[in-house]
């Protein structure tokens, strides 16, 4: 078998920029496939990181599937009590952020409801080796982060499942963060090997391209790590304005009084300035200068005000959607129906080229 290709991050960024330009010029040529695990509600880091990027692509009119990877929750945690609730909440956050499923081009669905997609996992598993799965750096990190002493086979193989998530609809653009690049390379390898082995005359699967977002990683309110609910440093999109102000009051800064834009030496202050900048569109340096010796108190007050203003419409839409669970369910139903249409057609083709027709 040919090797799994893994080029440099810089090369991936460069290819992403080209892809982005093409996407804007020809949205009709692409199908975007993206996904999240339903492990909890979304926070401000998701909104400024991946969510807004998705909304932007969505507004270009690209056909988009947003997949909720509920099976993947079982790979690294024991709890499944909240999966259903998290699926609803995730969908609410997507819609509140501006994803409009009424455009007829955007479909949201949990993968557990699409049997034909899941069935692709079986042939795909025969196209990768144990050694290749062993080497996946993202899986290694996740095993470590979750403190797992024993790895279940679902964890080990979920990148192959993810290939089924992407290829069932022949998605060709996948907006991802850096940590997902190894998975995408595996997906491309599986597509290539499948075509070479079973469909040498006419390829069944495209080799999907990653689209890396330009947004800076938003750190948590501790200023030292990526924002994340499990690190207790996140502002949830569902938080109230008062809760948000309370959290920001406790954010970490440093002992220097005068506020300056110095991301190298003052990461905590810089992160709060970046959050103000993302909420207002103002430049970080200019914000720092306007606060000056107003110090951390003024910085935090300004952040609380800016972020709460920025999130107010999102939160209002959230509350409306939360009061209408039937609508959320109907959005997911429609997403499942559309996904099954694509997955059935693909599975049919797959059976055909594998000589499994009866
Ligand atoms: N593994 C991804 C994550 O942890 C979630 C995911 C599952 C996904 N299937 C996908 C992302 C398909 C993009 C495309 O965030």
Count of helical stretches: 15
Q: What's the architecture of the largest domain, going by CATH?
A: 3-Layer(aba) Sandwich
State the low-pLDDT regions, or none. Answer: none
Q: Can you tell me the number of structural domains? A: 2
Number of strands: 5
- Helical fraction equals 55-70%
* Strand-pairing-aware structural class: mainly alpha
Mean pLDDT: 93
Give the termini separation. Answer: 29 Å
Please name the CATH topology of the largest domain. Rossmann fold
Question: Biggest sheet: strands side by side, in what order?
Answer: 1-2-3
The largest sheet is: 3 strands, parallel
SSE series: HEHEHHEHHHHHEHEHHHHH
General shape: globular
State the name of the first-level CATH class of the largest domain: Alpha Beta
CATH homology superfamily name of the largest domain: HUPs
Name every ligand kind in the structure: tryptophan
Rg is: 22 Å
The amount of beta strand, in percent, is 5-15%
């Amino acid at each position: 078998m040919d090797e799994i290709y893994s080029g440099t991050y810089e090369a991936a960024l460069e290819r992403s920029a080209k892809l982005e330009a093409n996407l804007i010029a020809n949205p009709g040529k692409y199908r975007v496939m993206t996904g999240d695990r339903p492990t909890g509600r979304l926070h401000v880091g998701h909104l400024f990181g991946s969510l807004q990027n998705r909304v932007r692509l969505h507004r270009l009119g690209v056909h988009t599937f947003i997949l909720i990877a509920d099976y993947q929750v079982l790979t690294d945690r024991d709890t499944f009590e909240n999966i259903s609730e998290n699926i609803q909440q995730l969908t609410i956050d997507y819609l509140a952020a501006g994803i409009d499923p009424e455009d007829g081009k955007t479909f949201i669905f949990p993968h557990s409801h699409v049997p034909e997609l899941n069935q692709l996992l079986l042939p795909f598993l025969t196209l990768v080796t144990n050694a290749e799965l062993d080497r996946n750096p993202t899986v290694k990190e996740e095993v470590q982060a979750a403190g797992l002493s024993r790895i279940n086979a679902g964890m080990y193989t979920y990148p192959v499942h993810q290939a089924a998530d992407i290829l069932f609809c022949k998605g060709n653009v996948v907006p991802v963060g850096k940590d997902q690049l190894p998975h995408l390379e595996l997906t491309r390898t599986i597509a290539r090997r499948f075509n070479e082995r079973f469909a040498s005359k006419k390829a069944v699967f495209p080799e999907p391209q990653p689209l890396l977002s330009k947004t800076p990683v938003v750190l948590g309110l501790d200023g030292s790590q990526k924002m994340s609910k499990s690190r207790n440093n996140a502002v949830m999109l569902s938080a109230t304005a008062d809760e948000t102000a309370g959290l920001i009051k406790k954010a970490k800064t440093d002992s220097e009084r005068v506020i300056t834009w110095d991301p190298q030496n003052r990461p905590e202050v810089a992160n709060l300035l970046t959050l103000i900048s993302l909420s207002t569109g103002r430049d970080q340096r200019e914000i720092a200068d306007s606060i000056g010796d107003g110090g951390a108190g003024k910085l935090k007050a300004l952040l609380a005000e800016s972020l709460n203003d920025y999130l107010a419409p999102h939160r209002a839409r959230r509350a409306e959607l939360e009061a209408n669970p039937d609508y959320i369910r109907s959005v997911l139903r429609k997403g499942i129906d559309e996904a099954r249409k694509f997955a059935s057609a693909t599975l049919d083709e797959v059976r055909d080229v594998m000589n499994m027709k009866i």
